[in-house]
Amino acid sequence: MRPPQKHCPNCGARVLRPGSQRACDYCGNELELGSPPRTIEREQRFARLKSAPDLSNLLAQPVGGGGQLFGAFLGLVVSGSIVVVGVLIATLAVPMSGPFAIVPILVVGIAILGFVKILRQTARFARDPGSARPALVVDERVRVQDGGDGPSRTRNYATLEDEGGQRRELETTDEVAGRIAPGDAGVAYERGGFLVHFVRVEA
């Protein structure tokens, strides 16, 4: 794709809106819209990426993600244990009266909601065979969740862009986040809406 015209080829006048202006403001000559520089750069990078000699082997590798699946099952065990303990406490607290009698019920309710959420995420992850596709790393961000009385939790996210320009933000691990940076090109391994691995390719 050619870059947008910055000067009219007919009269030489400066094009005020390159890439979106269809005709010259001075002589009315029709202009080629072309592609914006960023689109051209993306197309060039994906062309180099797809011509990499080891790309086919990288795309054929298994997606993996066993560590995330184990962590999800561990979360199910912990949240399930909290539910069981909460139910026992709520049962013992039935004779209680006053505003404190509802506290065990709230604890059990919150634990059940957490258990159901983790259960859905785990089932979604386990059902998804995963996919490997060429991608560009556009951005990274870190979200710190307040742990209340316990330690805070850090979540890592990476924004990936595909060949068509579509962008998606995926959660990822500390390990993957530490090995990627905005501008990297390579193969992204995604499973259950989670970026489980990324292999950088020179492009």
What is the CA-atom radius of gyration, in angstroms? 26 Å
Flag low-confidence runs: none
The CATH class of the domain at 55-63 and 130-200, by name, is Mainly Beta
**In the CATH scheme, what's the topology name of the domain at 55-63 and 130-200?**
OB fold (Dihydrolipoamide Acetyltransferase, E2P)
**Helix percentage:** 25-40%
- Record field, number of beta strands: 5
Q: What's the arrangement of strands in the largest beta sheet? A: 1-2-3-5-4
What's the architecture of the domain at 55-63 and 130-200 in CATH terms?
Beta Barrel
SSE string, helices as H and strands as E:
HHHHEEEHEE
Question: What's this entry about, in short?
Answer:
With 203 residues, this protein is α+β, with helices and mostly antiparallel strands. 38% of the residues lie in helices and 22% in strands. Among the domains are: 55-63 and 130-200, OB fold (Dihydrolipoamide Acetyltransferase, E2P) (Beta Barrel), CATH 2.40.50.660; 68-127.
Give the helices and strands, then pairings.
Blueprint: H1 37-50, H2 55-60, H3 66-92, H4 103-127, E1 131-145, E2 153-161, E3 167-172, H5 174-179, E4 185-191, E5 194-200
Parallel strand pairs: 3-5
Antiparallel strand pairs: 1-2, 1-4, 2-3, 4-5
Helix pairs in contact: 3-4
Structure commentary:
By secondary structure, the protein is α+β, with helices and mostly antiparallel strands. Among the domains are: 55-63 and 130-200, OB fold (Dihydrolipoamide Acetyltransferase, E2P); 68-127. 38% of the residues lie in helices and 22% in strands. It has a five-stranded mixed beta barrel. Strand 1 (131-145) and strand 2 (153-161) form a beta hairpin. Helix 3 runs antiparallel to helix 4. The chain is elongated and about 90 Å long. It starts with 36 loop residues before the first helix and ends with a strand. The model has no long low-confidence stretch (mean pLDDT 77).
